[in-house]
Design goal:
It is extended, with a radius of gyration of 27 Å. Helix 6 runs parallel beside helix 8 and helix 7 runs antiparallel to helix 8. It is built from eleven helices and three strands, in the order ααββααβααααααα. By secondary structure, it is mostly helical. The model has no long low-confidence stretch (mean pLDDT 83). The chain binds zinc ion. Zinc ion binds next to helix 1. This is BTB domain-containing protein.
Length: 254
């Protein structure tokens, strides 16, 4: 097949050089359909843009323009992300205006951090900082006895930058999930379940699910559960199933 798109030397083809092969044809249709689908979704999401027809992408020239637009958007987002990341992480590394000390277990070296950031990025820290025993004067210390120094640093890196290298996650996943487990309570368990589900953090998800099942009465009648159920119907199905299995286990053991 003399395809003008994928042949290495189109000039040696006989004029009018207007044949394309099945794969190139399918590929072109596929990418045009995909872009139109994405554009329609975006317009529906916005609910405003009725002027542009939804099948605005008709040719491969449109495709190339669309890809180049996306590339520009990606560059802008990358700049924004690195701006946000650099600011907070530098403040942590250089100890700029820190107002709380975090102390790992075994009397490890404490790490100065920022209350506002911890409370906004982590429900667990928010609860700890809100609780009376931690409403301490500036530069007071919270002890996280379940974590060693290296694990604490990883947790902070994640909270400050929004990401953590895969090998660090794998190395510390157990300790970090234990830390979360010790701090689980009826008011944060649904948040922990939601977050661990989004992050595919399997062991933490199991821990949170077990906690919820064991404290089902407190949680099922809370206002938070109504809100949670609307947002996470799939997790409610999992909670229901886990609760039934737990009830069954109790009956068998009687
Ligand atoms: Zn081809």
């Amino acid at each position: 097949m003399d395809c003008v798109v994928c042949t290495s030397m189109p000039v040696i083809l006989r004029p009018p050089r207007n044949t394309i092969c099945g794969a190139c044809y399918e590929g072109a249709r596929g990418i045009i359909n995909l872009i139109n689908k994405l554009q329609t979704e975006k317009q529906t999401e916005k609910g405003t843009d009725h002027h542009t027809p939804s099948n605005s992408c008709k040719t491969l020239v449109d495709v190339s323009r669309w890809v180049s637009d996306r590339k520009d958007t990606e560059d802008v987002l990358k700049e924004e992300v690195s701006f946000l990341r650099a600011g907070f992480f530098t403040a942590l590394q250089d100890q700029i205006h820190t107002d709380i000390q975090l102390q790992p277990g075994n009397n490890g070296l404490s790490v100065p951090a920022h209350r506002a950031l911890l409370a906004t990025r982590s429900q667990i820290f928010k609860n700890m900082l809100d609780s009376d025993e931690c409403k301490a004067p500036p530069m007071d210390t919270i002890t996280l006895s379940e974590l060693n120094f290296e694990e604490l640093e990883c947790l902070l890196e994640f909270l400050y930058t929004g990401s953590l290298a895969k090998e660090k996650v794998e190395k510390h996943v157990y300790a970090l999930s234990v830390a979360a487990d010790k701090s689980l309570n009826s008011s944060n368990a649904l948040d922990v379940l939601e977050i661990s589900d989004i992050c595919s953090y399997i062991s933490l998800k199991e821990t949170a699910l077990n906690f919820i099942v064991k404290n089902m009465e407190d949680i099922a009648f809370s206002v938070r559960y109504d809100e949670f159920a609307l947002k996470n119907p799939h997790l409610c199905v999992q909670i229901t199933r886990a609760s039934l299995m737990e009830a069954k286990k109790k009956i068998i053991s009687l």
